[in-house]
Write a structure and sequence with these properties.
The chain is built from five helices and no strands. It is mostly helical. It is elongated and about 60 Å long. Keywords: Membrane, Transmembrane, Transmembrane helix.
Length: about 150
């Protein structure tokens, strides 16, 4: 997940470079919003890992996808910030409000949500087996929906 987030931020820098060197494709105008909205929540989730989440425990990573509150807060903060910036451009000199950027931000947020769902589905069997004791267990103190 952290690798995906880092690659997304590098993609934004690459896209900016393409635009500065004369590329005029419409996709390059709203792609940074799409990529940022799809990868920035990963920063918040990675910070959760650094704050004592049991991700180092055997199969602890399977529980990461079940931290519903963490994912929701990450999505709200990053999407809200990107949308606030877009709407603030109406009042900033030399900035342009663009509805495509708003739609790209919403699409990126939906893409993050889809990635979380895929993560849950991909780890469901391992998580179930770990929580029922069939394999080395997950950290008991962690709640799947916290």
């Amino acid at each position: 997940m952290t690798v995906l987030m880092t690659l997304g931020q590098l993609a934004i820098i690459w896209i900016k470079g393409l635009r500065e060197n004369g590329a005029t494709e419409a996709f390059l105008g709203y792609a940074p919003n799409l990529v940022a909205a799809a990868t920035l929540p990963g920063l918040f989730v990675a910070l959760q890992l650094q704050r004592g989440f049991g991700g180092t425990a055997v199969f602890g990573w399977t529980q990461l996808w079940r931290l519903t509150r963490t994912h929701a807060v990450a999505l709200l903060i990053s999407t809200g910030g990107l949308l606030a910036w877009e709407f603030a451009q109406v009042y900033r000199p030399n900035r342009t409000f663009d509805m495509q950027d708003v739609l790209a931000t919403v699409a990126g947020a939906a893409l993050w949500g889809a990635m979380v769902c895929v993560g849950r589905l991909a780890t469901a069997d391992t998580h179930r087996r770990a929580t029922t004791g069939e394999i080395a267990s997950l950290p008991v103190s962690e709640s799947p929906t916290s």
